[in-house]
Design goal:
about 280 residues; mainly beta; 3 helices; disordered N terminus
């Protein structure tokens, strides 16, 4: 199983191809109080006016610390109905395209990396591509609590694994954990101290879809900052936010009017979420 997958620190999976994986729990550190502030340091429309890009710097204090810490977030906020999404599966490493390359060769206006995969480049958890299920849903993992699905209109939905129904889904993959639980509640309650780059998809109460990547930050700190400072990502209330594969897999592309925003992943990733202008 992928070392990156274990590095999230929420759970470690051990096993091999001939033996069922066994989940080993990790005792998290006690949660610290986190106070967050943010500044928008860059802002631009996305090409075709389908959404807005912004770079945000969060400043936060942990517990009784007096020295502030910082992390940055690159955010794409799309109004309802302005984009359609597509899930690209790349099982062949010999023909691999990075997240920015895949977006540009297919005419997408934005892209991010997708779900988890293992040492043999196999998807971990539910994996549905163009109506064909390649991997069944995992109901035991403490990490893979959510499902990102795309319907026939190219619209993204975030569901818990118990809520998910494949009936209207064209493509879907399992991921987690929820940083913001369905309904807007905080989804992470303890801090494991693991600082990693993150890739996240969120939906707002008012219907916006938000995708973003971050510099290194713990899941707990990110969740706390999102919960208390939703306006940082261009919405009033976050209805739910799902963590995708991150760390060295984090990749992003956005076509901006004056330039292109590229964040190339450090390793090959199995799936890429592409976004196209809905017009």
């Amino acid at each position: 199983m992928s070392k990156r997958f274990a590095a999230l620190g929420l759970a470690v999976f051990v096993g091999c191809a001939t033996q069922p994986a066994t989940e080993v729990a990790i005792e998290p550190a006690p949660a610290l109080q986190v106070g967050c502030q943010f500044d928008v340091v860059e802002q631009s429309a996305v090409a075709a006016a389908a959404g807005q890009y912004r770079r945000v710097q969060f400043t936060y204090l942990e517990g009784e610390a007096t020295a502030p810490k910082r992390f940055t977030v690159d955010v794409l906020t799309f109004l309802p109905g302005t984009v359609r999404a597509e899930l690209l599966d790349q099982p062949d490493l010999q023909q691999y395209e990075t997240v920015p390359e895949a977006a540009q060769t297919r005419g997408a206006i934005a892209a991010i990396n997708g779900g988890y995969y293992g040492e043999a480049f196999e998807p971990i958890g539910l994996y549905l591509i163009n109506g064909q299920q390649r991997q069944g849903i995992s109901r035991e993992s403490s990490l893979l609590t959510g499902v990102l699905s795309i319907d026939t209109a190219g619209q993204i939905a975030l569901s818990t694994r118990n809520e998910f129904s494949p009936r209207n889904a064209v493509s879907a993959f399992q991921s987690g954990p929820f940083l913001i639980d369905p309904g807007g509640a905080l989804g992470i309650y303890s801090d494991n101290g693991k600082l990693r780059k993150r890739t996240v998809v969120a939906t707002a109460s008012s219907g916006e879809t938000v995708v973003f990547t971050t510099s290194s930050v713990s899941l707990y700190t990110l969740a706390k900052c999102l919960h208390t400072q939703a306006t940082a990502i261009g919405v009033t209330n976050i209805e739910r936010a799902l963590n995708l594969d991150g760390g060295v897999s984090t990749g992003m592309y956005a076509a901006l009017p004056s330039a292109m925003h590229n964040k190339t992943e450090e390793v090959s990733v199995r799936s890429t979420l592409l976004f196209y202008d809905a017009e």
